[in-house]
């Protein structure tokens, strides 16, 4: 795509960098917002990449936050980690925090990044991790699938775990998964699909489907997500999120402030997941439900949610 065209969301990789981890892997990350502000690690969705943090670039300046957006293994600039667990990524975040000389920080996880935000809550040191924000984040399998649409229900029950080849085939046929297309071809086709989708879309999602800047950013984020193909990042990620997380939410420390934002009309990570997570976390969790979908809860409330996070850090 022609990145010289003005866009509300950053498409560049100027703020991207890598860290050599103790085990020899590379960890990719990018920084957005106010670099002198309170640091917030951003954990992207499924699929996603560090580019996703650009969604919080301009908003981050309002609450004066420093957004550190991290590629999970197999995505973007981060090396694959074939036998990884959800908790392993919390260790990566801890190593990055040390590398950046951060005395304290918060974590923000969206959608598929929700499980990893919970892992950070379970594993990172209390004197460092001050607060956690999860927006429309997926919960562990034991919270159930009430409110999910059929596609997400199938994907997170049997798809990623038992039929990864089918998931790979399906997503590789989607326009934003077509690695044989140029970025511009991908954008042109996806914009046309979004325009056609307006007729059947939820009213809350219609503005996004007509937003060329947002569509261009979504394409850029997905192209980076699939930079190394599908298996090492996306497919393995889906399998991990569909399986036992390897830790109990009930065991997360009770003094950690955790904010949960969910949409009533979200059929990807439904309201029931927010309720199930909050019930298991106990009194340290604060659940907020809005009249939003999976996408609109982020587009419409990201500034307010980030402000809440910064206030409690």
UniProtKB/TrEMBL annotation:
Residues 38-141 form the AB hydrolase-1 domain. This is AB hydrolase-1 domain-containing protein. Pfam families: Abhydrolase_1. PANTHER family: AB HYDROLASE-1 DOMAIN-CONTAINING PROTEIN, HYDROLASE, ALPHA/BETA FOLD FAMILY PROTEIN. SUPFAM superfamilies: alpha/beta-Hydrolases. InterPro entries: AB_hydrolase, AB_hydrolase_1, AB_hydrolase_fold.
């Amino acid at each position: 795509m022609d990145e010289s065209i003005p866009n509300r969301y950053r498409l560049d990789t100027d703020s991207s960098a890598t860290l050599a981890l103790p085990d020899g892997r590379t960890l990719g990350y990018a920084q957005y917002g106010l670099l002198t502000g309170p640091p917030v690690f951003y954990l992207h969705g499924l699929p996603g990449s560090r580019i996703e943090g650009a969604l919080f670039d301009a908003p981050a300046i309002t609450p004066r936050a420093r957004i550190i957006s991290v590629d999970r293994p197999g995505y973007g600039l981060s090396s694959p980690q074939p036998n990884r667990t959800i908790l392993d990524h919390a260790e990566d975040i801890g190593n990055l925090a040390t590398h950046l000389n951060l005395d304290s920080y918060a974590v923000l996880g969206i959608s598929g990044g929700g499980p990893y935000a919970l892992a950070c809550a379970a594993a990172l040191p209390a004197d460092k991790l001050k607060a956690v924000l999860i927006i429309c984040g997926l919960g562990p399998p034991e919270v159930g699938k009430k409110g999910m649409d059929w596609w997400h229900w199938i994907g997170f029950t049997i798809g990623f775990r038992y039929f990864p080849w089918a998931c790979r085939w399906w997503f590789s046929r989607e326009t934003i998964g077509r690695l044989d297309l140029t970025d511009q071809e991908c954008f042109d086709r996806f914009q046309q699909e979004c325009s056609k989708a307006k007729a059947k879309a939820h009213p809350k999602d219609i503005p996004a489907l007509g937003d060329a800047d947002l569509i261009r950013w979504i394409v850029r984020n997905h192209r980076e997500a699939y930079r190394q193909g599908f298996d090492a990042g996306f497919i393995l990620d889906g399998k991990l999120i569909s399986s036992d997380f390897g830790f109990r939410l009930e065991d997360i420390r009770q003094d950690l402030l955790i904010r949960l934002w969910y949409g009533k009309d979200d059929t990807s990570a439904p309201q029931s997941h927010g309720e199930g997570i909050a019930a298991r976390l106990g009194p340290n969790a604060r659940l907020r439900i809005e009249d939003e979908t999976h996408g609109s809860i982020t587009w419409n409330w990201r500034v307010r949610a980030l402000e809440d996070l910064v206030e409690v850090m």
